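Cross-posting from the chemistry board since nobody answered there.

I work mostly on the small-molecule side, so proteins are not my area. We synthesized flavin mononucleotide and want a rough idea of how it might sit in this target. Sequence and SMILES are below. Is it possible to get a predicted 3D structure of the two together?
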Amino acid sequence: MKCVDDFRLRLGQHELVPIVIGGMGVDISTVELALEAARLGGIGHISDAMVPTVIDRHFKTRFVKDKLKLYKANVPNPDKSLVKFNLGELEEATRMHVRRAMDAKRGDGMVFINCMEKLTMNAPRETLKVRLSAALDAGIDGVTLAAGLHLGSFGLIEDHPRFRDAKLGIIVSSLRALQLFLRKNGRTGRLPDYVVVEGPLAGGHLGFGIEDWMKHDLAGIVAEIQAWLKSEQLDIPLIPAGGIFTGSDATAFLEKGAGAVQVATRFTVTRECGLPDPVKQEYFKADEDDIEVNGISPTGYPMRMIKSSPGIGAGTHPNCESFGYLLDANGRCSYIDAYNREVAAHPETRKVKVYDKTCLCTHMRDFDIWTCGHYTYRLKDTSTRGADGDYALLTAEHVFRDYQFSKDGRVALPSDPVT
Ligand SMILES: Cc1cc2nc3c(=O)[nH]c(=O)nc-3n(C[C@H](O)[C@H](O)[C@H](O)COP(=O)(O)O)c2cc1C
């Protein structure tokens, strides 16, 4: 019987353990987590979500405070169109973030950055170009284009000296999305180095409709894309993601020709993961009916999360002058509209509740939206519980090696050997 370690992912000159830890914003997939994946010979992702905010936390810089100071007078104004990011500061913060990872990298694996197009930042093209270019400047091994179709993203960096040497990939949830991406980016004469195929059981935002996500299945989408690539004689490694919970689940995809697998949920309860420890316990304790896919993300994409996330219904005043990562090209965000509607409907209330949308920037920054994969309810089977009722946190190395070596659908507990 085979295990993941019997396979390797080849990306150019690199031969890797075919395990990719997916990007988890905002700083849930930390530099420390990505570095562990790289040290162990696989691929780890840092996230490009809200980097100036994250950098302030790590380096005691003042990117957020300075932005708020500049736009403070606009806080009561529902029109956020003048709240812009300073592109020079965005570049500096991205470089600091990526360098922190690349300077510390050890081992034969790689560190990629997950770059979400839906972070439109009130200037979609300009901010995306700066973020992509700065990550390449700072030496990132690869960029995974996420949360969006990225129809023009290769074009934004085609003049960058590392455009052909860095690994570039795209996350899709359908063959159609991949075909569109290839058609629109084809003009740059460059194919993606890998394609992550994300199914409906993944964490974070989903690339399916809120009503029909449950009708899709990862293996079916992967098989369809695989057959099409073959018919087009395109040799691009496919990396399935979403609901791959054991080494055996991963091996089944590799045996059918996948290049690697991308996994995330099992790493949310590791020491290296950025979630606060009490939140990690919420992930461990969640049962299947504690998890939902809802429409509260202002991005318009359905999102899976634990129902008791404090950010649901919080009614936070929009913080776009400090953050504003989801403002569209016209400075709008659907949370602002929802918030103002509730304020107008309840003029006597000091603090309104908003249930249909959430201030995602604020609550992801504060780890108050507990986004998670479908199989989060199985995390309790991956650890042991102490007398105080808390589960023992795992190390990223333990979970990585469990994926790499386990067979027979087994999951190694913290005390079990994993090689
Ligand atoms: C807590 C969490 C946050 C996530 N955030 C992002 C993100 O910011 N960008 C993204 O492209 N995918 C995100 N994902 C999706 C993962 O990168 C990954 O593709 C997927 O969750 C894999 O499925 P699994 O969690 O069942 O292993 C997130 C997943 C989780 C669990």
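Reply from a structural biologist on the board:
Welcome over. Reading the output above for you: The radius of gyration is 21 Å. The domain at 4-274+386-405 is CATH 3.20.20.70 (TIM Barrel). Happy to explain the token format if needed.
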